[in-house]
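Protein folds are increasingly written down as discrete tokens. With that in mind, we are printing a sequence and the tokens encoding its fold.
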Amino acid sequence: MLLASEPVGDGVSIISDEIDGLIEVASYAAGAGRTQIMAVAARPLSDAQAQRLRDGIKKAGATLVDIVTDPGSTAGKKSLARLGDVQAVLLIGADAPKVIAPILRQGGALPADVPFLGTGTWPAESYAEPALEGSLLALVDQTALKRISTRFQEAYGRALSLEAAYAFDAVAVAAGIARAKGEQGLTPEALHATSGFAGATGVFRFDANGRAERRFAIYRLTRGKPSLLDAAPSVF
């Protein structure tokens, strides 16, 4: 269940998926005045994922111009003809940075000053793609991860993975509540504390549906490397 991004029953899910990151980076872009946003995906989105994305971007005060999941089709090409009207483009899927980004930049269809918006789903090896220069990325707080990465490396002889960090935080939340409130203290009310929790994956809390609401850090890709633009908030 640690690896599931959807809560089960009365439980909570500590995983943040790609949609969570997309909403966060789109919200940041909207706050900077880039409120007309298009999403172009290299993978299908479920109806639930598409609706979460629309709702999250609307809540951020931005307009989701379209979600294009078939850019090569007639309908997709018609939608992409509106690129000149957008102020930022969400790239969805691990293949999107290498496959879709260069195509959208070709011939000036998407001006160089209109950034791509991405998440930790983008492979690090894609960062050097010239079309991605200036892109904004929402990533799990890298500073927070470093607090346990050295100990993890020493204990297990391998680099800390994001999955391991999520597991670390899941155990820490349960242990912390039990330590503070006793063995009967691990209740839905305790898990849904609005103040949230601070862990190896940064600050997070659980919403009414059991999904993790996490504060991400925002990075800008500069010459193929992510540079910190805005650190993840330390509190809600």
